[in-house]
Design goal:
Layout lengths: L7 E6 L2 H9 L10 E3 L11 E2 L1 H4 L9 H7 L4 E3 L3 H16 L5 E5 L2 E5 L12 H16 L3 E6 L2 H11 L10 E3 L5 H6 L1
Parallel strand pairs: 2-4, 7-8
Antiparallel strand pairs: 1-6, 1-7, 2-3, 5-6
Helix pairs in contact: 4-5
Length: 189
């Protein structure tokens, strides 16, 4: 009898710094479709994150803020809300830990979940369904959106979460699970 396939998920908060900035300042950052998080117009900072709309202008994380504002001068620029980001990260982690005790932080906005051995706990539902339930719980309890990629190992889960992320130019659902045995074909993409 072969061992069951591993069930690894990567939960990645969608545009985390932008989402938190908008959440804590709904009247300012919350209303700005073109938003850069990191630095200010007057400082020599770097972009921590940018809204999807701002990314269309070529703005990327780790870019000097001055360069980002040259590419998208109409963007609003706000400092990183560090305290709020830490609190929201902890909130998300608490929700994830209700689904499995094996939650490993990969960064402030990414967590690996090992759902091995939880099949009976979730009535053998497909991993994709469990991932959607996790995503819905995080949204309901934190007001933030996460995307989830899954597979039999961390590399596949990391690649799958990039496919899962809903962006203005795709039809992604926020969840993408690579079935056991399909890893090689998936990674060829």
């Amino acid at each position: 009898m072969s061992a069951p396939a591993r069930r690894i998920l990567l939960a990645d908060a969608d545009a985390f710094y932008v989402a938190v900035a908008r959440l804590i300042d709904p009247e300012g950052a919350g209303k700005a479709p073109l938003l850069i998080v990191g630095g200010s117009r007057e400082s020599r900072g770097v972009v921590c994150s940018a809204s999807y709309e701002t990314r269309k202008f070529g703005v990327r994380s780790a870019m000097p803020t001055a360069q980002a504002l040259q590419l998208c001068p109409q963007a609003m620029c706000v400092p990183v809300p560090r305290g709020a980001c830490s609190r929201k990260s902890a909130e998300i982690r608490r929700v994830l830990q209700r689904f499995t005790p094996l939650v490993e932080s990969a960064s402030i906005d990414e967590w690996y979940l090992d759902l091995g051995g939880t099949e009976q706990l979730y009535d053998n539902e497909p991993l994709e369904r469990t991932a959607h339930r996790i995503r819905e719980a995080v949204r309901a309890e934190t007001s933030l959106s996460i995307s989830i990629g899954g597979g039999t190992n961390k590399l596949v889960a990391k690649m799958a979460v990039e496919v899962a992320k809903p962006k203005p130019d795709n039809n992604a659902t926020g969840v993408h699970i690579v079935a056991p045995g399909d890893e090689a074909d998936f990674l060829k993409r």
